[in-house]
Amino acid sequence: MGNFLTTIGLEIHVEMKTNSKLLSPSPVNFGDSPNANTNVIDWGYPGVLPRVNKGAIEFGMKAALALNAEITRDIRWDRKNYIYPDNPKSYQTTQQATPLGQHGYVEFEMEDGTTKRVGIRELHVEEDAGKNTHGGDGYSYVDLNRQGTPLLEIVTEPDIESPEVASAFLEKLRQIIQFTGISDVKMQEGSLRVDANISLRPAGSDEFGTRVEMKNLNSFSYLRTALAYEQKRQSQEIIAGNQIQQQTRRYDEPTKSTILMRTKEQADDYRYFPEPDLPPMHIDQTWVDEVAATLPESADSRLKRYVGEFELGAKEAGVLVQTLEMANFYDATVAAGADAKKAANYLIGDVNSYLNDTQKDLQDTLLTPENLAGMINLIEDGTISSKQAKKVFEAITEGKEPKAYVEENGLVQESRVEVLQPVIASIVDANEQSVADFKAGKDRAVGFLVGQIMKQTHGNANPNVVNQILLDELNSR
Amino acid sequence: MDNFLNLDIKTVHESLVNGQTTVVELTQKALEFIHSRDEELNAFISIDDEGALKRAEELDAAGIQEDNLLYGIPMAHKDNIVTKGLKTTSASHILENFVPVYNATVVEKLNEAGVVVIGKTNLDEFAMGGSTETSFFGQTKNAWDATKVPGGSSGGSAASVASGEVLFALGSDTGGSIRQPAAYNGIVGLKPTYGRVSRWGLMAFSSSLDQIGPLTRTVRDNALVLNAIAGYDDHDATSSQKEVPDFTAKLGQDIKGLRVAVPKEYFSEGVNEEVAEAVRAGITKLEELGAIVDEVSIPHTKYGIAAYYILASSEASSNLQRYDGVRYGLSERSGDTLEDMYVNTKTEGFGPEVKRRIMLGTFALSAGFYDAYFKKAAQVRTKLIQDFENIFKDHDVIVGPTAPTVAFGLGEEDDDPKTMYMNDMLTIPVNLVGLPGLSINAGFNSENMPIGMQIIGNKFDEQTVYQVAYAFERATKLYEKIPGGDK
Q1: Does A49 lie at the interface with B, CB-CB under 8 angstroms?
Q2: What is the DSSP letter of B374?
Q3: What residue segments make up the domains of chain B, in order of their start?
Q4: How close does chain B come to A403, measured CA to CA in Å?
């Protein structure tokens, strides 16, 4: 950005998929009818009291461990006071004074191969708010299903120097969190939300410029566009000799610009104080160890293992660790006895195209690692041809067991010489021209003849066996 | 029997067991008496004739439980304790017609024990006050003198028990709200150790100080009720997992050799002469019974009130924000905007004392003031905790007056919230520290108004508090004197 250095920090909210809410036994579930998943606690009824879901603390601990953060051993809860209809108690229960994790970091690689490191200042557990909708009938509606869903707020150090690095960092963070299994981290569903703050300063200056906060950057592209816009806006302001005002802005997609929401003077005073309804908690080493033992293997570690042990290419391995589901599916397929390379090829190829075509997530399909491994093994041992495998693949997407399917549909590959020999001989007999071409050194003739043979055998002939017999046959003429 | 004056739970239980009376008869008589007595007294916000009689019939039909002393006993809940299907108002306009959909844990526990809930008693709005004068539902009178306040905030509960309307009532105590009205009405009131009784279903005033407790005519009755309501509750993370002993177990044990601490600050110049005299006489009585009395000092007592009004108001300012007109209670929707609804609902719904404390608490928590107010107050609290820990190292109980004066006249302290706040001087430290404290009648002043003596115990040692109170009660038999003359 010309003669300016950019400083960016991110504040990320992750919705955690615990079974129940942070402070009430209501279920956490996306997409149920309004207020179905609520009780008196979520309504903020007079006389109700909160009760901490230890599972949410453990999820937070998993994230802290995955982000290389120190776990705060004595935590307490604080109230953040503000009044809004989606906030029924009129305060949010959070960890202002004692964030669960501190001093972490994330390391990642940029596309040009350079390595970046972004510090995690803190991460803490808090409650999500409900949802207000404004009806066409002049009324506003409040849905408290989301109220009390445990959120993880992750705050970075101001270590990010460009919109591109911000985006790459967020990708890496999303992957890390996803591989802990605590969240779906989907921006489009709101289980991953990001706010950013950005400031500019002249190159060579040690002092940070005035920062501007940006809210609700709902996709990776919004994040990049908004930050780039803000870089440009701020540099123009500074060049024009204007002071940057401390303010909160929001990204406006139609105009691809940022719009002022409020100035510093309009900022809320949240009147934080210790939550008296919840006693402080101590986290001992035993508890940390127990949680650490349940932490799934990270994406980085799996990638290393796939390249090292399974001898996959870095690019292929990278595709497999794009989502936790894919990586888990892959590991399970290999564990079920499939060849590691073949399993990788199928997942990256057929399975991914199937997911793209059907617009499904892997976990929402009927595919199982056992069935995929079964199919790969049937190809390996020559029971079916790769052509037959297409049909079998279709069958396993419908949840069918491959071996049973192959038997029921007579898809067994024909490898017996005594069966294939007469068929091949008769086809060679019927195609004298091809024999002549072969003798004249035209290899294409072989392909043509194989095609004829496969047609005759309804694709059930073992191509390797066919090739061998055919070449013998041709050479003997 | 026209009322429960001069009766206790055990006596009434025996008449149920031997068939002299039935739960229905008890309930009918209680209701009859309440309807006539309450015209003047106004101890009740809601009287549940229908529900109480239906319940009484069920209990009679199910058969009297011989070893369950609370079975069939008519009682009342302070109207900030939620009762399913029975209006619960906190004496506020903002909840004037609020009917809860669930029961407080104490209500559940007493229902399981088989009590008959007669109704809901009056209080200062949201339990903020010491005279029951801030109630939206009118002033409750003192059971001994209708020109005097009953104290507060559990004024309705205290007056209903002292006047014989019910055998016992539950109250809540944030800074003295059980003990002070018990003192003003000459009965027994206990604020249990913080965490001893579940707060689930108690409309929060100040969460770190609030505690539910019993108001009764006798010490034994008090211990019986605490037996029924105490214990850990999964709904309340601040309730204690500590084992609940039988609180009647030490009743009747002599108090020889028990160490009684008497803080000199509890007899400072703000304490009325007649009150000090009666309580000193009470302490002499304990000495006669074998207790060893020492004068001690609780140096941070003088900071207690300031710390309390900051901490309690801060928590209250947060707790009371939820009454916003969105989901329940009063909703003033004549304005155009959401902001209008909030402002109009609260302006209309809250009384002046509640507004005063919300403003005080909001100020104390504001950016730039937090360190000077809230944080300082929290530090005072820590100092007080240390003061009391030191005393309990070599003492069993602390004894002093419950309140600096006897019940004052209606309307007397209306214009001066500070004087009103000073009434809590001797009760507040107990809440800040989380100790159990009991008020028992120690005699009467020249105008025949009761004087309360406070017995403070170590954390979770209600047993010793009851032991001392019971020894005093048996030695003095002051409970035999009842409002309206000696019987």
Answers
A1: yes
A2: I
A3: 9-258+466-486
A4: 53
Nearest chain B CA: its distance from A245 CA (Å)? 21
Assign residue A470 the CATH number of its domain.
1.10.10.410
Same domain, yes or no: A186 and A307: no
pLDDT of residue B487: 36
pLDDT of residue B30: 97
> Are A357 and A404 part of one and the same domain?
yes
Give me the pLDDT at residue A75, please.
97
Same domain for A318 and A223 = no
Q: What total number of domains does chain A contain?
A: 3
Contacts of A93 in chain B (CB under 8 A): none
Structure tokens at A265: 């003077």
Question: pLDDT grade, residue A443 (50/70/90)?
Answer: confident
CB atoms within 10 A of CB A261: 14
Per-residue pLDDT tens over the stretch A98-152: 999 999 999 999 999 999 999 999 999 999 999 999 988 988 899 999 999 999 9
The CATH architecture annotation of domain B9-258+466-486 reads: Alpha-Beta Complex (3.90)
A230, A248, A282 — which closes off a domain?
A282
Distance of alpha carbon B195 from alpha carbon B168, whole angstroms? 21
What pTM, to 2 d.p., does this model score? 0.91
**Chain B CB within 8 Å of residue A209 CB:** no
Instruction: Identify the domain boundary among A357, A389, A408.
Output: A408
Q: Check residue A266 and give its pLDDT.
A: 76
Q: Which structural domain, as residue segments, surrounds residue A471?
A: 417-475
User: What is the distance between the alpha carbons of residues B164 and B166, in angstroms, rounded to a whole number?
Assistant: 5
Beta-carbon separation of A50 and B315 below 8 A: no
Catalytic residues of B: 78, 153, 177
> If phi over 0 gives left and psi between -120 and 50 gives alpha, with beta otherwise, what is residue B117?
beta
Same domain flag for A236 and A272 = yes
- How many residues make up chain B in this entry? 487
From B392's Cα to the closest Cα of chain A, the distance in A is 24
For β-strands A212-215 and A247-252, DSSP reports them as: parallel
| pLDDT, chain A, mean | 93
DSSP letter (8 states) at residue B142: P
Average pLDDT of span B412-427: 80
Instruction: Give domain status of residue A228, yes or no.
Output: yes
Q: What is the mean pLDDT of residues B166-194?
A: 98
Are both A398 and A424 inside the same structural domain? no
Does A130 contact chain B (CB < 8 Å)?
A: no
- Give the pair of three-digit tokens for residue A233: 């806006």
In a domain, A291, yes or no: no
Q: Is the pLDDT of residue A243 over 70?
A: yes
Asked whether residue A268 falls in the same domain as residue A182, the answer is yes
Instruction: State the ipTM, two decimals.
Output: 0.96
The model's pLDDT over B299-356, given as tens digits with 9 standing for 90+, comes to 999 999 999 999 999 999 999 999 999 999 999 999 999 999 999 999 999 999 999 9
Of B82, B238, B342, the CB nearest to A47: B82
Within a domain: A288: no
